[in-house]
Amino acid sequence: MKITAIETLQWSAYPRLLVVRVHTDSGLIGLGETVDKVPAAKAALHGTVAPLVLGQDALDIEGVWRFVMDNIMYHGYAGAETRALSAFEVALWDIMGKHYGAPLYHLLGGKTRDAIPTYNTCIGVDEVPDYRAWQEDAGQLARSLLDDGIHAMKIWPFDPFSEASFGQYISLADVERGLRPVRQIREAVGDDMEIGIECHFRWNRASIERIARALEPYNILFLEDVMAAPYMDEIKIFSQRTTIPVVGSELMMTRWQMREWLEKRVSSIVMTDPVWNGGIAETRKIANMAEAFGLPIVLHNVAGPICHAACMHLGAHLPNLYFVESVRAFYKTYFPILSGYTPQITDGHLDIPTGAGLGITLNESALQRPDLVRQVTSGDGLAKGRRAMGDHWAVEEIR
Q: What total of structural domains would you count in the chain?
C-alpha cells in the first residue's frame, strides 16, 4: 500500500492546529495532527517529510519513520521536523488500523484499562471560559468541573509574577496572590478536587522552591515543568527538596532526549506528547523506558480531536499511565465541529474511541468550511526506496 499524497488542513478559526491526511493507493486515508508553531511544522511536512515518504509502503511504519529520522537527524531533529514526523506517523497508525479493521489499542497489544484517568487543563474559550473562571473564582470553577465528572484540574496562578524579574525572584506578596485560587478550591470543595500547578518553565530554583513551600500544605497533585527542561540537574535538586511530585517534560522529543532525564531521575513523573515527540510508537517506547525506571507517565494533550483520540488509545494500552491531560473548553466546543468525536467523561475518566484505527473521522462540513486552507504534496517522491541512511541519497542524485 503506497503513500500517494500528504495533505495538510488548517482552519483560521483554530490556528494552533495542523491536521494531516495521508493518502494511499488503496483509497485509505489516515489522520494525524500536531499543535502550535504550525507554519514550521507545515513547511517540514511538505518540504522535508513528503519527498521522503511518497511512494513508500504505508504499513512499514517503523522503517519509514527511521528513514525520515535518519535524514532529519543530520540537521538537528528536535523541532519542526519531529512535530511534522509525529503528525505523519500518527496517520500511518490510523491507516494500519483501518487496513486490518482494528482499533489502535489492539495494534499496540491491547488494553490495560477500560477508561482513561484525566485532569482538566483550565484553558478557556468564549463558550467555556474556564481560564477566566479560575482567575475570578477558582472554587466555583471546581464545582462546575465536579458536576461534569472531572476530579482533577490544572491551573497556573504564579505565571504572571515571573514577568518583572524574568523568573529570577518572586516576592512573598506575589506568592500569596498566587495561592488565592488554590485556597478558593480547597475552601469550596475540600479535597474532592485534585490540583495540579503548571509552571511553564518560568522560574529559577530559588523562586520555585519558595512557591513550592507555600503550596505544600494544600496537598497539590503535581508541579509541572518547574524549570526549563535543559536544566536537569537543577530540576532534580528541586524535586528532592519538595514533597510535591514533579512532572516533566513534554519538550523532550524522542527517546534519545528522554533517556538522560530518566537516567538522572530528574522527576518522579514523566510527561510526553505523541504529536510532538515522534508519534505513537515513540510514545510507547518512552513509556516503556519510564516503566523500567518505575516511573508513571502523563500524556500531554492540548491539541485537537485527533491527538485526543491517539492519547486515549495510548492511555488504554500503557500500564504505567498516571493521567492523560484534557481540555474541557476544547472537547466541548470545536471537537464536534471538526469531527464526529465528542469525548465523554465519567467519574474522572474519559472514554476510549471505538472503531478501526483512531476511531475518528473528520466531518464533511469541516472539509467545506470557507476558512479551510488546504495544501497537498503528491507524486513519486525523491527517495526510491530506503536505500541509504541520512541524506546521502539526495547528495548523490544532485551530483
A: 2
The per-residue b/e assignment along 366-395, b for 16 or more CB within 10 angstroms, e otherwise, is beeeeeeeeeebeeebebeebeeeebebee
Whole-Å CA distances, 53 to 41, 48, 77, 322:
16, 9, 17, 34
Residues 96 and 110 in one domain: no
Question: For position 71, which CATH number holds?
Answer: 3.30.390.10
148 with 221, same domain: the answer is yes
Phi first, then psi: give them for residue 186, nearest 5 degrees: -65, -40
pTM strictly above 0.85:
yes
pLDDT, tens digit (0-9, with 9 covering 90-100), for 72-94:
988 777 899 999 999 999 999 99
Query: Which grid cell is 190?
Result: 475540600
DSSP string across 148-182: TT--EEEE-TTGGGGTTTTTS---HHHHHHHHHHH
By CB atoms closer than 10 A (0-12, 13-18, 19+), residue 243 is exposed
Based on the domain organization, do 191 and 220 belong to the same domain? yes
